[in-house]
Amino acid sequence: MTKRTASCSCGQLSIEVQGESLGVGVCHCLACQRRTGSVFAALACFAAPFRVIGNATEYVRVGDQGTKYTFRFCPVCGTNLFHTEEGCELSYVNVAVGAFADPSFPAPQDSVYECRKHSWVQLPPGTQGYEKDPT
């Protein structure tokens, strides 16, 4: 079974996941743009079990549809490494794709909040786009 490790910039916080991702997506919402400091967030979803190594700071944000998301950051370097959804914490985790530091990581299949996408962003052919979050 494939095992992957994603780490923060300083290496204090990491997460180990197993198996292939359940999906890779990008989010263009303004909250993700602010959270990442980039024009979108790139996330990969993995089924449990996963293992967190190190200490994390948590920030809870309520999404447009009322769902609570808990984001985990490294308290040393500030890297936003992963997040979970309220009620699903034991089922799956969403990990920042860039934290795997793997240029061969699979491309996104989905793109949400395209109503907020920067006009110059070009995604791979075949990426399914949604104006907002389809859930």
From TrEMBL:
<comment type="similarity">
    <text>Belongs to the Gfa family.</text>
</comment>
<keyword id="KW-0479">Metal-binding</keyword>
<dbReference type="Pfam" id="PF04828">
    <property type="entry name" value="GFA"/>
</dbReference>
<keyword id="KW-0862">Zinc</keyword>
<keyword id="KW-0456">Lyase</keyword>
<protein>
    <submittedName>
        <fullName>GFA family protein</fullName>
    </submittedName>
</protein>
<feature type="domain" description="CENP-V/GFA">
    <location>
        <begin position="4"/>
        <end position="114"/>
    </location>
</feature>
<dbReference type="InterPro" id="IPR011057">
    <property type="entry name" value="Mss4-like_sf"/>
</dbReference>
<dbReference type="InterPro" id="IPR006913">
    <property type="entry name" value="CENP-V/GFA"/>
</dbReference>
